């Protein structure tokens, strides 16, 4: 791999053990609260969209716009973090989360599909910022502990898997307008997250971080970066592609909203629960192997979905999908940390996430259309070709990388 060490004078100061632990706990709690925001969007988006949309084919458009909001706001969030520090970006994201809930609440009152779409855009902006929590946890931490710090913050999403769906179940019928109080709760939770993030202590951006580092084009051509970005993009795209369609597919096959919410709950738990040990697996077996297992689990989830349309089939599809996403995405994220120096981290991490969610946005747009026109089975079958291509590409890159690294060392 290309040398990425930072000169000692330019390296950001390491944090104390107490500061590291405090950051991890605060970021994990904020991850849980923000994860509940995303669960609310996924649990309600297609159903509200189906109710308000001028055409059934637009039912999942709010979810697609949520992903567009993520993709478009990742680079601006990176600019804010690089110039003013990560905490400034975190608070801006939480503000977008509050606005998302309030706009969705108003859209449900007046029956406006397009205002609801605008609300999900701001929800996506919030989610984009939240994704940087995992990288922020590694700031000021010894290299040998970065993967575990990243993993522990992602583990905060386990609480989101419980809180999010239950938040929807408890609040969706508290008003004559479906989900109005759910969206109010969504805004309140984002406000609480902002309060918690005020206490995060991270190294300030150095002058070298603002102006230094290699050109992004050189970094992006590294085999490891290509592998990380590709696997992260496909893992997240296929997870979103199937999860976006699943609640509406369950609704179309006569299953209750409570059943789909419970399926999403177990899906989100499966997404984040392995994070308690994924970091250790990455340290022991390497990021590439963990990524490969994740891709295979995503393929298995689609195969289970093809087995039938009972509630159990949907639930197991969502659970395996969550497990596959965890290994694929966390493995890819850990590999990104090996591709840059400290002075390059904000730009490289933002580029990686932009690639991931740009592709994810394209997949999200076609998910609802395929479901409404061709059905749930077609959605599942469509996931296999990109999965197979990614597994092959990852295997090829893994064979080529040692030779490339050897030539650099010589």
Would you give an account of this structure?
The protein has 410 residues and is an all-alpha fold. The protein has a single domain, classed as MFS general substrate transporter like domains (Growth Hormone, Chain: A, Up-down Bundle). The chain has helices at 17-52, 61-84, 86-110, 113-131, 133-136, 146-154, 157-171, 180-197, 207-211, 216-220, 223-252, 257-272, 275-285, 287-305, 311-336, 345-374, 376-382, 384-409. The longest helix is centred in the first third of the chain and has 36 residues, at 17-52. The chain is globular. The model is unreliable at 1-12 and 403-410 (pLDDT under 50). It comes from Microbulbifer hydrolyticus. One of its GO terms (molecular function) is transmembrane transporter activity. This is MFS family permease.
In short:
With 410 residues, the protein is mainly α. It has helices at residues 17-52, 61-84, 86-110, 113-131, 133-136, 146-154, 157-171, 180-197, 207-211, 216-220, 223-252, 257-272, 275-285, 287-305, 311-336, 345-374, 376-382, 384-409.
Can you give keywords for this protein?
mainly alpha; 410 residues; MFS_dom; Growth Hormone, Chain: A; MFS_trans_sf
According to CATH, what is the topology? Growth Hormone, Chain: A
Q: Figure out the total of helices.
A: 18
Mean of residue pLDDT values: 80
CATH fourth-tier homologous superfamily? MFS general substrate transporter like domains
- Number of beta strands: 0
Low-confidence stretches: 1-12, 403-410
Beta content: under 5%
Tell me, what's the shape?
globular
For the largest beta-sheet, the strand count, sense and barrel status come to: none
CATH C-level label: Mainly Alpha
Q: SSE order, as H and E? A: HHHHHHHHHHHHHHHHHH
What is the percent of helical residues?
over 70%
Number of structurally distinct domains: 1
C-alpha termini separation:
11 Å
Round the Cα radius of gyration to an integer and report it: 20 Å
Query: Can you name the CATH architecture?
Result: Up-down Bundle
Q: Indicate the structural class.
A: mainly alpha
Transmembrane segments: 24-45, 57-81, 88-107, 113-137, 149-168, 180-202, 223-243, 263-283, 290-309, 315-339, 351-373, 379-397
InterPro entries: MFS, MFS_dom, MFS_trans_sf
Protein name: MFS family permease
Keywords: Membrane, Transmembrane, Transmembrane helix
């Amino acid at each position: 791999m290309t040398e990425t060490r930072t000169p000692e004078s330019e390296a950001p100061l390491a944090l104390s053990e107490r500061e590291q632990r405090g950051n991890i706990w605060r970021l994990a709690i904020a991850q849980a609260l923000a994860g509940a925001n995303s669960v609310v969007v996924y649990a309600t988006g297609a159903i509200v969209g189906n109710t308000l949309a001028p055409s059934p084919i637009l039912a999942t458009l709010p979810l697609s716009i949520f992903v567009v909001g993520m993709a478009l706001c990742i680079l601006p969030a990176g600019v804010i973090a690089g110039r003013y520090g990560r905490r400034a970006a975190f608070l801006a994201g939480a503000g977008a989360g509050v606005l998302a809930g309030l706009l969705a609440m108003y859209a449900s009152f007046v029956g406006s599909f397009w205002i609801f779409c605008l609300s999900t855009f701001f929800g996506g902006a919030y989610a984009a910022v939240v994704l940087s929590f995992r990288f922020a946890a590694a700031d000021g931490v010894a290299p040998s502990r970065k993967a575990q710090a990243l993993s522990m913050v992602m583990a905060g999403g386990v609480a989101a898997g419980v809180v999010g769906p239950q938040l929807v179940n408890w609040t969706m019928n508290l008003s004559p307008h479906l989900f109005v109080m759910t969206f109010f709760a969504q805004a309140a939770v984002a406000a609480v997250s902002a309060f918690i993030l005020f206490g995060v202590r991270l190294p300030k951006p150095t002058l070298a971080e603002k102006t230094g580092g290699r050109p992004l084009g050189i970094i992006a051509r590294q085999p490891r970066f290509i592998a990380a970005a590709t696997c992260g993009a496909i893992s997240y795209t296929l997870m979103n592609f199937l999860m976006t369609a699943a609640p509406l597919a369950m609704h179309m096959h006569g299953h209750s909203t409570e059943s789909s919410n419970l399926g999403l709950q177990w899906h989100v738990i499966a997404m984040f629960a392995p994070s308690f040990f994924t970091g250790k697996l990455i340290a022991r077996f390497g990021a590439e192997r963990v990524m490969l297992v994740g891709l295979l689990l995503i393929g298995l989830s689609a195969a289970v979905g093809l087995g039938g349309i009972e509630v159990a089939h949907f639930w197991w599809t969502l659970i395996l999908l969550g497990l596959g996403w965890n290994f694929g995405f966390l493995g890819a994220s850990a590999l990104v940390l090996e591709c840059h120096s400290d002075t390059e981290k904000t730009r490289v991490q933002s580029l990686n996430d932009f690639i991931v969610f740009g592709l994810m946005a394209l997949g999200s747009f076609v998910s609802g259309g395929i479901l409404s026109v061709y059905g749930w089975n077609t959605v599942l079958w469509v996931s296999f070709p990109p999965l197979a291509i990614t597994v092959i590409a990852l295997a090829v890159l893994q064979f080529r990388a040692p030779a490339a690294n050897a030539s650099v060392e010589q």
